[in-house]
Amino acid sequence: MTGWCRLDRRTLGVTAVLLAGFAVSAGTPIVIGAGGTVLLWLVPAAVLLVGAGVLADYVRWRHTRFRCTAERLELEFAFVAHTRKSLPRERIRSADLTANPLHRAFGVAVLTIGTGQHERLTLAPLARADAEALRTELLHRSPGSQDGPLATLDPRWIRYAPLSFVAPALGLAAFGGLFKVADWFGAGGGLLKWLLNLFGELPFAASVLLLLVLALVAGVAGAAGLFTEMWWHHRLDREPGGTLRVRRGLLTTRSVTLEERRLRGVELVEPLGARLAGAARVDAIATGMKRDDDKTESKTLLPVAPRAVAADVAARIVGEPVADVRLVPHPTAARGRRLRWALLAALTPVLVLLVLGALLTGVLLVPAAVFAAVALPVAVLLALDAYRGLGHGTRGRYLVVRAGSVRRSTAVLARDGVLGWTVKQSVFQRRRGLATFTATTAAGAGAYSIRDADAVEGLAFAAAAVPGVLEPFASVPAEASRT
């Protein structure tokens, strides 16, 4: 493909259907609320909207062209203004495909090509076959040849979807949306009365509690549905030439490519609910990820799955077993710090309620007591769990760092990807012989911290884990450096 080519003309149909759907969804509440007479001006307005949108998309399609030469990929738009973007082929690191339900219905897809830095080109849309062929050409892949899948979705993993804060959030959002729509038609109060009357003569508090249970059930169903839409047909492949490819999606299909030479490790992430169920997900620690694109789903190589499966996939990606790494525990002083911070966080709202109750009304003393009875034990349990989660160690050429309770993370970071160490020691840490050692890197989050480690042991560990970084700035015992 060396000559100039156009985008797929079916983009006009996609635009027309999309705008028509928007016009119908926006106009339906207006017709219901104002009556059928508004159709006299609403239909012409909808036709004008669709026509203008299709015309604008026609101009974009008619005056946009691209070509792929042996040296560069070029995209040009020449209408009133003339713009040309190009990427050197040797710098291309990813070629990702996305197709929403409309794109799939029309047989097209969006191809996004990136260099791993801040440069990217988007060809929207191309015929699905053409997009796949161009992706293969740009990444120098042989069509049909693969090293095989590293992981595929097991439908039983959907059971982990509700074990997160997404479920209650979706449930409350669903009820909020329902009341919002009812309020458009002045029926918000009536809807609330109708819902409460469903429970007969139950006390008001019991009715509210049952409504919350219904919201939670709706949230669980929503979380399962969202997981299914995002991760159905998930497949993680290692392709010839050194790339990882993630394909997933039920309605909107996505194909994300990650060049392995950009990979600096992986992160096993265990949100509290998933961890209690023995599950974890695997995220990539890679260079060249833009912050605005560094969302969970874009860097996730494996969705929440049984921890044994996640550990196996992580080991196959990095080439080192990571499940049985023996981590160095942290001093008991670190446990005390977590307990104090957790109790402070739990007691602050209690004290506020107590002060307001003493100054304003004694009614606030009841929620203060209830909050204290619930929050204090939870805070202590989370603090103890966070302490048990602390640990650091090495495995082959990788540095392993674990921390967290609500979101426990085990980062497996390539030692040659560590650019330096940042050592922090507060006054309180210094009194207890603790310090925080942060490994800085150009990949992933950019920094991975060993929190509240023994200051002497941590310094020796950091010097041994990444030789040559700390020696010019600190005196480390020779015998420690050799461990």
From TrEMBL:
The keyword Membrane applies. Keywords: Membrane, Transmembrane, Transmembrane helix. Residues 61-137, 395-454 form the YdbS-like PH domain. It comes from the Bacteria. Coiled coil: none annotated. The chain crosses the membrane at residues 12-32, 38-59, 160-182, 202-228, 341-360, 366-387. This is YdbS-like PH domain-containing protein. It comes from Amycolatopsis balhimycina DSM 5908.
